[in-house]
Amino acid sequence: MREKRDETIILRLSKTEKNRIYEKMLSMGIRSLSAYIRKMALDGYCLHLDLKDLQRMAYLLQMCSNNLNQYAKAANENGRVYAADMEDLQQRLDELIEIGRQILSRLADL
After folding, report:
1. Which InterPro entries match (predicted)?
2. How far lies 31's CA from each of 28, 41, 66, 72, 75, in Å?
3. What pLDDT is attached to residue 74?
4. Where are the domains of the chain?
5. Which residues in the chain come in under a pLDDT of 70?
6. Number of other residues whose CB lies within 10 A of the CB of residue 57
7. Which of 45-51's residues contact partners 24+ apart within 8 Å by CB, and which partners?
8. 28 burial via Cβ count (<10 Å: 0-12, 13-18, 19+)
């Protein structure tokens, strides 16, 4: 169950400070001022992760999974698998592995 948030803290800021807080909040992709201030006060930092590579990896994984299912179905029906199809699947898997390594490398730098 979610913890009830019923306590209030009043914070006085200058117009410049308020604008800087909003700029930082929006640059992190956070839309809730309350959530941003709570995160910064409790943890001292917010991370903005660019997940485009992860989305690409998920897409490729889905495509490989679909292709593998098609290859398995064809193998069960025909009793054979084509080398070109297997090479295509291998190339996609190699690309997935490389993207995974890049993502892990960038996460390790954080």
Report:
1. NikA-like (IPR053842)
2. 9, 17, 36, 46, 50
3. 81
4. 1-48, 52-108
5. 46-49, 110
6. 19
7. 47/110
8. middle
Which one-letter amino acid corresponds to residue 85? D
CA dist., res. 36 & res. 28, Å (int): 9
CB 64 within 8 A of CB 96: yes
Which pLDDT score, from 0 to 100, does residue 2 have?
80
Give dist(CA 59, CA 52) in Å, integer. 11
pLDDT at 48: 67
